[in-house]
Hints:
single chain, five-stranded mixed sheet, 12 strands, about 20% strand, globular, binds zinc ion
Amino acid sequence: xxxxxxxxxxxxxxxxxxxxxxxxADGKYAFKAEAATPxxxxxxxxxxxxxxxxxxxxxxxxxxxxSIGLGIPGEVxxxxxxxxNANSTxxxxxxxxxxxxxxxxxxxxxxxxxxxxxxxxxxxxxALGAAVAFGVILGTGVGGGVAVNGEPWRGSNRLAGxxxxxxxxxxxxxxxxxxxxxxxSNCIETxxxxxxxxxxxxxxxxxxxxQLPEIEAMVAExxxxxxxxxxxYIDKLGQALASVVGVLxxxxxxxxxxxxxxxxIYRELPERVAAHMFHSGVSKPRLATSIVKSKWGPDSGLxxxxxxxxxPK
Length: 313
Ligand SMILES: [Zn+2]
């Protein structure tokens, strides 16, 4: 077996699953596994994470002293050091860093999962070399992350890029979203999450159930209802991203999360963003920002989490 250099362990905590990897210095996996996220039990979450770590260390004994980073669907509050803004709500209010350090027997680093995604994509992915990049997760929840000159920019309130819980910017004042788990309503997340797209298809067909891959297949086959539902979704996404362009105007926007695998999005989205951008001139606005699919797909956040610590010497 070849010698594995610079092993680091990463976790990606999602709304439905927890993934773990042991990543080597060349960005190759020495180990990878996942388990279902225990949604309503914090002790259950700690147990599942410990079991995954034990499996990884048994499979790769050289990772016994490897650093551990976690991407979480939320953030750590700068004052209380407890998790906030997590759609895996069982994590909220807990000092996850301290509790994991106790059960793992070593220090961990935590970061928002969208921050991990964009860190990974600027390091060796779809935003390689971008001076300013914005990463978006369109999954169970909707989050975002910013990277500047190759480094994640977390912000003074650790809220940089947390755009999913800004109000959806509808010009007509239409309240398009449902109440959000965060306690407010009309959040961008309630309009643009994967479940929101699935629900839009359900409503448009008066009750047919289809998951994202089926909706994508129907779009490819030319199903008019699926096309209309997706087109409406892309317009809403364009509208929400136009406000990101109005603040950050990044070079690259990287899309991740379940919805980002739908290829039809990338054909239509740039012109939908442009249509909603600030514009008062004569010529039609064109979007100069590239909008690309994350190179590492569902693994992007996981790889970014493993890289929250520097390479071991
Ligand atoms: Zn919200």
